[in-house]
Amino acid sequence: MKLPKSWQQISIGQFQQLQKLTEPTLDNQIKTLSILSGRTTDEIEDLPIVEMERQLTRLAFMSELPTAKNLTAFHSGNYVYRFAANQHQLTAGQFITVQDLFAGGNWIDNLHKIMAALCVPYRIMLPKRMELKAVDFEPTAELFQKKMPISLAYAYTLFFSTCLPELLAATQVFLEAEAKELKKTAASANGQG
User: Fold this and answer.
1) Is the pLDDT of residue 172 over 60?
2) Residue-range definition of the domain harbouring residue 33
């Protein structure tokens, strides 16, 4: 049975499915092997228990959280998707989208969308930055869900989620200062009129 040997061989989509299997029951172990091997649950159920246990021991790496060293880019086909290294590289639209996706509570379910919101695609052949348009967002998110290793996505979004509260506070301070400035401008304009 072909099983992943590390988190780098598990996609975001597979990880999202595995997260729903919270109890260490026989049924969930069967589903885990099915998700990671690509075999049906019926095929897994036909295995002798000893064989199932042997296959599950091959997944021992899953007892630790995913990690990755290269958090800057993801390659797929003719594209390289580069990720913002900090909040200053995000557009306002990206920041708002990421904020909304984290606000839902269970960010794991939105992980592929968060990663799509934080990327800038580049063509490999023509090193030209492409703007990710709204029509491209869902296909990019689906691509990431199917192909992006969870090790990259998990480490990157975990880093970003720890920075998000600080970013929100800084944004609020900035917006409050802007609002005060606009009120002063409006008051002085009304006083002159």
Assistant:
1) no
2) 7-63
38: left (phi over 0), alpha (psi -120 to 50) or beta: left
The answer to whether residues 30 and 119 belong to one domain is: no
In what order do the strands lie in the sheet containing 119-123?
73-76, 79-83, 119-123
Same domain? 44 vs 97: no
How far is 64 from 175, CA to CA, in rounded Å? 40
Q: For 87-100, b where at least 16 C-beta lie within 10 A, e where not — what string? A: beebeeebbebbee
Residue 133 lies inside a defined structural domain of this protein:
yes
In a shared domain, residues 58 and 78: no
pLDDT (tens digit, 9 = 90+) per residue, 55-91? 999 999 988 877 766 667 788 887 888 877 666 677 7
